[in-house]
Amino acid sequence: MTEHTKFLVDLVKTASQIITDDFIVKSKDDNGDLITNFDGEVEDFIIAKIRAQYPEFDIIGEESNSDGKLTENCFVIDPIDGTINFANKLPLWVIQVAMIQNGETVAAVIYAPKLGEMYYADSFGAYQNGKKMKVNNLDPSKSIYFATHDIAYKLNRNPLYARHMVCAGLAFAWTAAGNIGAAVCGLKTPWDFVPGMYLVKQAGGTSQVHNGVNIATNSNEMMAEILKNL
């Protein structure tokens, strides 16, 4: 792995140790979204470490700079992607960070502490727990995929098998690992899709943005099938 990737892997591992099963849950908005005290604490910790190591880089985080735009040199952070799952003690949540340098994503890490799954990608490829991974080669008719709620219900009207997991990062990671055929993310916030889209790309998958929807798949055939029904 590159020096940048090692920094991010070590960082999210350490940040995960902040999180315990003793947390405070609050309503984030009027749409039922939740936030816990650890969302802010983990993000603050990650930001402090990044600023010390990369002071010239901008930082876009879900909790601290949610209105920030991607720049030529920046980091994007989601301290707990899948907070609703986390708040209900489901293990399907991740910490994810990506590094953008000279306008290109060069490193991404998605870590699922409760599952013991560390995903990362850089110029050397994409890896799960240190083992190189690759998207699967299943036919679209035999492959399930995960989509955010605004997309899943629409796509589930066709023969493909759409699932909604409330954790975009894990959906992308599992696509890269070959567990599922695709991840479809209708969310516009970069911390939800930048790390995962890069992970799938480095695992040999294909990606596309269609009408603001970020799609990463195992093959061009799967991409065409999803676009046909989107």
Descriptive account of the structure:
This protein has helices at 3-16, 37-53, 83-87, 149-155, 168-176, 190-202, 220-229, and strands at residues 25-27, 34-36, 58-61, 74-81, 94-101, 104-112, 117-122, 125-128, 131-132, 144-147, 161-163, 182-185, 206-210, 213-217. The protein is an alpha+beta fold. The chain has a seven-stranded mixed sheet with strand order 3-4-5-6-7-8-9, sandwiched between helices. The chain is globular and about 45 Å long. The relative contact order is 0.14.
In short:
Helix content is 33%, strand content 30%. It has 230 residues and is an alpha+beta fold.
Question: What attributes does this structure have?
Answer:
230 residues; alpha+beta; seven-stranded mixed β-sheet; 14 strands; globular
Q: What is the chain-wise order of helices and strands? A: HEEHEEHEEEEEEHEHEHEEH
The secondary-structure class comes to alpha+beta
Cα radius of gyration in angstroms? 17 Å
Quote the average pLDDT: 88
Q: Based on CA inertia axes, which overall geometry fits?
A: globular
Largest sheet: 7 strands, mixed
Number of helical elements: 7
The beta-strand count equals 14
Adjacency order of strands in the biggest sheet: 3-4-5-6-7-8-9
- Stretches where pLDDT is under 50 for at least 5 consecutive residues are none
Could you estimate the helical fraction of the residues in percent? Answer: 25-40%
Our measurement of the CA-to-CA distance between the termini, rounded to an integer number of angstroms, reads: 36 Å
Strand proportion, as a percent range, falls in 25-35%
